[in-house]
Amino acid sequence: MSEVVRSTLVKLQAIIALIGLAAITPLLILVALLGRLIAKICCCSAPKSIAGEVAVVTGAGHGLGRAISLELARKGCHIAVVDINVSGAEDTVKQIQDIYKVRAKAYKANVTNYDDLVELNSKVVEDLGPVTVLVNNAGVMMHRNMFNPDPVDVQLMINVNLSSHFWTKLVFLPKMKELRKGFIVTISSLAGVFPLPYSATYSTTKSGALTHMRALRMELALENQKDIHVTTVLPSFLRTNTDVTQLTHTIGFGDLYPLLTGEEVAQRIVTGMVRGEAEISLPRMAAILYRLILIFPAEWQDRLILLFSRNKFKKLREEHS
Ligand SMILES: NC(=O)c1ccc[n+]([C@@H]2O[C@H](COP(=O)([O-])OP(=O)(O)OC[C@H]3O[C@@H](n4cnc5c(N)ncnc54)[C@H](O)[C@@H]3O)[C@@H](O)[C@H]2O)c1
Ligand SMILES: *[C@@H]1O[C@H](CO)[C@@H](O)[C@H](O)[C@H]1NC(C)=O
Ligand SMILES: *[C@@H]1O[C@H](CO)[C@@H](O)[C@H](O)[C@H]1NC(C)=O
Ligand SMILES: *[C@@H]1O[C@H](CO)[C@@H](O)[C@H](O)[C@H]1NC(C)=O
């Protein structure tokens, strides 16, 4: 068979598969909805107990990381509170110990630094035990120079918000595989699926994190590690970070949807995590919106996002130039 005929046949096969998939899509949607409904009614996906497990939470000295640490402690986890800001981390430890009886300890580590993480792991294992819960939360926003970002800032954002997940995976996953259990939670953002203009670095790191976790889930499935759960979180804007609240105020996002509190997000994350949910969008309806928008051609998707933000970003850009 000639190469031309062969590739024509392969293309034909792909087209037929696509038509087949499109034809059964309504059925698949129905099954997905029914599955959700049944799970809701009879609680099929029983949440796992995480009491006594050891959790590493990065960027836990402030904001969402602190809220997640408190929520995991409430469920009985021992917490390694990791941050580059030691005083922030110590504050979190104090808040945990004021309420819960679990062990908690502050650790200074820079998540962009592989050697820091290797050292962190050995300290945590010695102090608290082997790590079976990893929360990739540490992140930097740095929107102070939105329209003309400094290359150093761009690289740092990529290092903290994207590359660091590869280093934490390298350091913490082997033990989870050996024990054949664990939870990995990665904080992405709705910006990972709805990229924002002049926030290319942020949006890119967040969609990169989302894709990283999807690939990891497939690898774990292929390796039969069904008790290691990977959860990606896509929250809308939070109230935790003053730079963010300022930005959302400027672009008028608060009129579209109220900003989320760290506590409500942390609660939803931990509930979803112990059930082994793959992706958590906050608010919930964003999950539907992001699937719907993908049906449209790329130009339309861009226009839809700009529909709400065009004038605000134009004005903001004029102010800054
Ligand atoms: N704020 C939002 O609106 C928003 C929206 C969606 C997603 N998120 C994500 O949620 C996560 C938490 O956001 P937040 O608002 O709580 O942030 P935050 O700025 O309040 O806290 C981040 C913490 O990470 C620490 N950190 C920064 N760089 C680090 C490094 N190299 N090593 C170790 N620790 C480091 C900081 O010291 C700080 O304590 C981030 O990943 C962020 O991208 C935030
Ligand atoms: C570190 O954390 C403390 C306590 O939460 C906070 O007051 C301080 O501003 C933080 N420092 C930096 C550099 O973020
Ligand atoms: C973390 O490490 C990176 C690269 O090693 C460095 O650029 C950054 O300044 C460090 N952050 C802090 C707060 O030390
Ligand atoms: C980096 O991650 C943090 C927390 O996960 C988030 O608040 C911040 O907006 C992110 N910034 C970029 C540039 O991705």
Automatic annotation (TrEMBL):
- One Gene Ontology term of the molecular function aspect: all-trans-retinol dehydrogenase (NADP+) activity
- Its protein name is Short-chain dehydrogenase/reductase 3
Q: Which SUPFAM superfamilies match?
A: NAD(P)-binding Rossmann-fold domains (SSF51735)
Do you know which InterPro entries this protein is assigned to? Answer: NAD(P)-bd_dom_sf, SDR_fam
**Record's family?**
Belongs to the short-chain dehydrogenases/reductases (SDR) family.
Species whose genome carries this gene: Drosophila simulans (Fruit fly)
Please list every transmembrane segment annotated in the UniProt record, as residue ranges: 12-39
GO cellular component assignments = lipid droplet; membrane
